[in-house]
Write a structure and sequence with these properties.
By secondary structure, the protein is mainly alpha-helical. The chain has four helices and no strands.
Length: about 110
């Protein structure tokens, strides 16, 4: 919080806002994916959640890529790395959710050393 009000002449929150907004919309896309999976497994129609999920996810991922690129272009490495991490985690969840939605087998878990 201190960084948000002390950076850029007290306008640090404005720097964080695009990252917060895109993260929020990525979460909305994941939520729609989970609801779509639930509807499909319940045998209910799921197209009305699948289409918005695809649109929200596509628009938001492209916006996040643009934001991350602008953060790195302005040497704002911390926000660039945070955005990259958030985007990578979101893509991972989307890939796994898509595998579940398509009925593909789960990936084998990593072996633990014992």
């Amino acid at each position: 919080m201190a960084l948000a009000v002390t950076q850029a002449g007290g306008k640090g929150g404005l720097i964080l806002w695009p990252l917060f907004g895109t993260t929020n919309q990525l979460l909305a896309g994941v939520t729609l994916l989970v609801v779509t999976i639930w509807l499909r497994r319940s045998g209910r129609p799921y197209l009305y959640t699948l289409v918005p999920m695809l649109l929200v996810t596509a628009a938001t991922v492209s916006a996040m890529v643009g934001e991350v690129r602008s953060y790195f272009a302005t040497d704002n490495w911390l926000l660039g790395l945070m955005g990259t991490l958030i985007l990578a985690c979101d893509i991972w969840v989307i890939v796994e959710g898509t595998r579940v939605l398509l009925g593909l087998p789960a990936l084998a878990p990593l072996e633990t050393r014992g």
